[in-house]
Amino acid sequence: MNHTPEKLQTFLEIATEAALAAGAVLQSYLGTLETVEEKGRPGDLLTAADKAAEATILEILDRHFPNHSILAEESGRLGKNKSEYLWAIDPLDGTTNFAHQYPFFATSIALLIDGVPQVGVIYDPFHNELFRAAKGLGATRNRRPIRVSQTSELSKSLLVTGFAYDRRETADNNYAEFCHLTHLTQGVRRSGSASLDLAHVACGRLDGYWERGLSPWDMAAGVVIVQEAGGNVTAYDGSSLQIDSGRILATNGYIHHNLSTELMQVRPLSAWNNAVHSR
Ligand code: IPD
Ligand code: CA
Ligand code: CA
């Protein structure tokens, strides 16, 4: 269904209200945590801050959109399953960083309409940076328009990636890709917050990003923001992004084909299919 710019702007404003409120909650917990739980896999952490920030977001969205569906990292799927509107929420993206007081974390909120990410807000409360976009309305950082970089050669690019929590259990752990691209570029960062990685591609600080093992709430907001900043977002092989595939390739567009080719060379599709975990 097509929505008017005014309607998308309304969604964007409410998502912003929720992200700013959640960011304030995160800031209030920073450095005060006494207990950090593990969710199952080693290193997959859960804190009181994740839960409190998520509760804040859910309360605001429920007040404005009681009939919309929700997919929130800590609460799972909520609301009416048949709604065309699905909010994908990561209250604290970068929990490991947060638990160590390493200041690279964010709240990420996206609205998918009929399965397509159309509104995205990512808020980094430590640096007070608010990244926002809605389909057709452009992308902003602290309310000023942003564009992707113009780097057109892999050898001159700075990339970012990440390693999912199942990295100890699967040969498909992204280490081969990381080594290969570290040699071909000016560097590959691993910052620990997928949403902020995407936001930084959108505003031109980084030229490209790839990762596997993600969930929709990690990437949905960043997808809209990168696209609206003029970038390209696809699957590793350049085909259309599947939001629940776990894999994403997001770039400034100029290096997209070459980065896709290199990723496919390191680990072609046949190898993924044989991997223990194929996400
Ligand atoms: C994680 C971060 C990290 C990425 C992991 C994600 P969390 O999210 O985005 O950068 O490498 O795959 O799960 O657990 O901090 O919300
Ligand atoms: Ca996350
Ligand atoms: Ca999280």
Could you explain the architecture of this structure?
Belongs to the inositol monophosphatase superfamily. This is Inositol-1-monophosphatase. This protein has 279 residues and is α+β, with helices and mostly antiparallel strands. The protein has eight helices and 15 strands. β6 and β7 form a beta hairpin. The chain is globular and about 50 Å long. D-MYO-inositol-1-phosphate (IPD) binds next to β5 and α3.
Provide the β-strand percentage band: 15-25%
Task: Indicate the structural class.
Answer: alpha+beta
Provide the CATH top-level class of the largest domain. Alpha Beta
Name the shape in a single word: globular
> What small ligands are held by the chains?
D-MYO-inositol-1-phosphate, calcium ion
Reconstruct the topology from this structure:
Elements: H1 5-29, E1 37-38, E2 45-46, H2 48-64, E3 69-72, E4 76-78, E5 85-93, H3 95-99, E6 106-113, E7 116-124, E8 129-134, E9 138-141, E10 144-145, E11 158-161, H4 175-184, E12 187-190, H5 194-202, E13 208-211, H6 216-228, E14 232-234, E15 248-251, H7 256-266, H8 269-274
Parallel strand pairs: 3-5, 11-12, 11-13
Antiparallel strand pairs: 1-2, 3-4, 5-6, 6-7, 7-8, 8-9, 9-10, 13-15, 14-15
Helix pairs in contact: 1-2, 5-6
The protein binds D-MYO-inositol-1-phosphate (IPD) and calcium ion (2 copies).
